[in-house]
Amino acid sequence: MSDSGTLTQTGLVALTGVNKHFGELHVLKDINLSIAKGEVVVVIGPSGSGKSTLCRAINRLETIDSGTIELDGQPLPSEGKSLATLRADVGMVFQSFNLFAHKTILQNVTLGPLKVRKMDAKQAEKRALELLERVGVASQASKYPAQLSGGQQQRVAIARALAMDPKVILFDEPTSALDPEMIQEVLEVMIDLAKQQMTMVVVTHEMGFARSAANRVVFMADGEIVEQADPESFFTNPTSRRAQDFLGKILKH
Amino acid sequence: MLSVLTDNWDLFRDGFWLTIRLFLVSAVLSMVLGTVLGAFRVSPVPALRAVGTGYVNTFRNTPLTLVFAFLFFGAAKMDLALPSPYWTAVGALTIYTSAFVCEVVRSGINTISPGQSEAARAVGMTFFQVLTLIVLPQAFRAIVPPLSSVFIALLKNTTIAAGFSVVEAGSIPAAMSERSENQLLTLIWIAIGFLILIVPLMFLQRWAERRTAVA
Ligand SMILES: Nc1ncnc2c1ncn2[C@@H]1O[C@H](COP(=O)(O)OP(=O)(O)OP(=O)(O)O)[C@@H](O)[C@H]1O
Ligand SMILES: [Mg+2]
């Protein structure tokens, strides 16, 4: 694995010199990160290090103060219709699922294709059912989100993201709100996506996932990318002091 | 007691009919204007938010009589041609009530977790789609009870128009005293009339609450 992508080639997602403050707090410090098509990048780091902010900046749920973020060579638009169009190409899976509470599972998956992609209703439904089948919740299609377990809801959220045919999917701690017995069912869906060359940015502390599916681990601390490497080298042989401390802490339990 | 009503049925009928028209038209217009202003208050555009906030702060804190006075006399002073007193009254009631509807809509929107609109934005929906497809349908449940209070207040507020030469139900007492009718009985009949008008509103609220309770 190379120290890929600072200036040489622009990836599918390219962040250059990105800075972000929350008031006085400098949460993203001069971030440079390029993610190639088909690559799976796991972002790891202590609480408050800016992982969620980084993820959310990529589809502009958070604005940035300076630097550029490009998707497929296009800089992110700042507002309005063109931003919405761009977001349609970037899937997002949240820690707390955020399924539309007043819509059925099927409607959760068809709504984006219908309203944003203007897809024909029959086709949207057919595709949604295929995706629900793929994540293993097709039998729940007519229920409401509150009637499903957390693991099922998160798999629906993944199907909802996939229904838009996104270029990249962002996952912000997709399994940390789940009961332990449900974590695996969600990770399996994600591993499957990775195998099919979906470009993914995954904030997670699940090292099993990182080892089996990630091409690269990015370690963040205090708003900086401190270290990045392939999973094997990162977990067995972290070079920075802060990564060593962090891994020491999370490996203990 | 009944003869007070039956002998003057024309007065009561015409008065309450105008009250109903004032109420319904102002209610619909306030609902539209108030919802638009509520959308302004949560919009990503700072200028729109400022307009919404300024509107609410101005009209929620101005006595309704003053809004009426401004429209009827202020406009006359400025040589503006006003529409009929009826439509001027509708204007005053709508301007005033919209500020309250706006606040009800805004606080209803605030009951919905930000995760809902973030997920909708992440799917690529525009602000308008997020609002109409995701946020407002869910906020509706929280909006119904306070909204009924706003509309019941509007119904009672229509009587202010009597002071501005609109012959709605609030103008009945004056007309009745010209006919030398019993004032107390007149007032009791007017109160009963308003109670009767409020009943369908309460049923409407029950129905809306039941409809939104399912999801
Ligand atoms: N909307 C906000 N306003 C102010 N400060 C914020 C906001 N969101 C995040 N922060 C702060 O920014 C810093 C980075 O937050 P972020 O959520 O990106 O961290 P994280 O790495 O995802 O942490 P965690 O592992 O706890 O999810 C934290 O100190 C957090 O308190
Ligand atoms: Mg986070």
Automatic annotation (TrEMBL), chain A:
<dbReference type="InterPro" id="IPR027417">
    <property type="entry name" value="P-loop_NTPase"/>
</dbReference>
<dbReference type="GO" id="GO:0015426">
    <property type="term" value="F:ATPase-coupled polar amino acid-transporter activity"/>
</dbReference>
<keyword id="KW-0067">ATP-binding</keyword>
<comment type="similarity">
    <text>Belongs to the ABC transporter superfamily.</text>
</comment>
<dbReference type="InterPro" id="IPR017871">
    <property type="entry name" value="ABC_transporter-like_CS"/>
</dbReference>
<keyword id="KW-1003">Cell membrane</keyword>
<dbReference type="GO" id="GO:0016887">
    <property type="term" value="F:ATP hydrolysis activity"/>
</dbReference>
<keyword id="KW-0029">Amino-acid transport</keyword>
<dbReference type="GO" id="GO:0005524">
    <property type="term" value="F:ATP binding"/>
</dbReference>
<keyword id="KW-0547">Nucleotide-binding</keyword>
<dbReference type="GO" id="GO:0005886">
    <property type="term" value="C:plasma membrane"/>
</dbReference>
<feature type="domain" description="ABC transporter">
    <location>
        <begin position="13"/>
        <end position="247"/>
    </location>
</feature>
<dbReference type="InterPro" id="IPR030679">
    <property type="entry name" value="ABC_ATPase_HisP-typ"/>
</dbReference>
<keyword id="KW-0472">Membrane</keyword>
<dbReference type="Pfam" id="PF00005">
    <property type="entry name" value="ABC_tran"/>
</dbReference>
<dbReference type="InterPro" id="IPR050086">
    <property type="entry name" value="MetN_ABC_transporter-like"/>
</dbReference>
<dbReference type="InterPro" id="IPR003593">
    <property type="entry name" value="AAA+_ATPase"/>
</dbReference>
<dbReference type="InterPro" id="IPR003439">
    <property type="entry name" value="ABC_transporter-like_ATP-bd"/>
</dbReference>
<protein>
    <recommendedName>
        <fullName>ABC-type polar-amino-acid transporter</fullName>
        <ecNumber>7.4.2.1</ecNumber>
    </recommendedName>
</protein>
<keyword id="KW-0813">Transport</keyword>
TrEMBL record, chain B:
<keyword id="KW-0813">Transport</keyword>
<dbReference type="InterPro" id="IPR000515">
    <property type="entry name" value="MetI-like"/>
</dbReference>
<dbReference type="GO" id="GO:0043190">
    <property type="term" value="C:ATP-binding cassette (ABC) transporter complex"/>
</dbReference>
<keyword id="KW-0472">Membrane</keyword>
<feature type="transmembrane region" description="Helical">
    <location>
        <begin position="61"/>
        <end position="80"/>
    </location>
</feature>
<feature type="transmembrane region" description="Helical">
    <location>
        <begin position="86"/>
        <end position="105"/>
    </location>
</feature>
<protein>
    <submittedName>
        <fullName>Amino acid ABC transporter permease</fullName>
    </submittedName>
</protein>
<comment type="similarity">
    <text>Belongs to the binding-protein-dependent transport system permease family. HisMQ subfamily.</text>
</comment>
<keyword id="KW-1133">Transmembrane helix</keyword>
<dbReference type="Pfam" id="PF00528">
    <property type="entry name" value="BPD_transp_1"/>
</dbReference>
<dbReference type="InterPro" id="IPR035906">
    <property type="entry name" value="MetI-like_sf"/>
</dbReference>
<dbReference type="InterPro" id="IPR043429">
    <property type="entry name" value="ArtM/GltK/GlnP/TcyL/YhdX-like"/>
</dbReference>
<keyword id="KW-1003">Cell membrane</keyword>
<dbReference type="GO" id="GO:0022857">
    <property type="term" value="F:transmembrane transporter activity"/>
</dbReference>
<keyword id="KW-0029">Amino-acid transport</keyword>
<feature type="domain" description="ABC transmembrane type-1">
    <location>
        <begin position="16"/>
        <end position="203"/>
    </location>
</feature>
<feature type="transmembrane region" description="Helical">
    <location>
        <begin position="20"/>
        <end position="40"/>
    </location>
</feature>
<dbReference type="GO" id="GO:0006865">
    <property type="term" value="P:amino acid transport"/>
</dbReference>
<dbReference type="InterPro" id="IPR010065">
    <property type="entry name" value="AA_ABC_transptr_permease_3TM"/>
</dbReference>
<feature type="transmembrane region" description="Helical">
    <location>
        <begin position="184"/>
        <end position="204"/>
    </location>
</feature>
<feature type="transmembrane region" description="Helical">
    <location>
        <begin position="126"/>
        <end position="144"/>
    </location>
</feature>
<keyword id="KW-0812">Transmembrane</keyword>
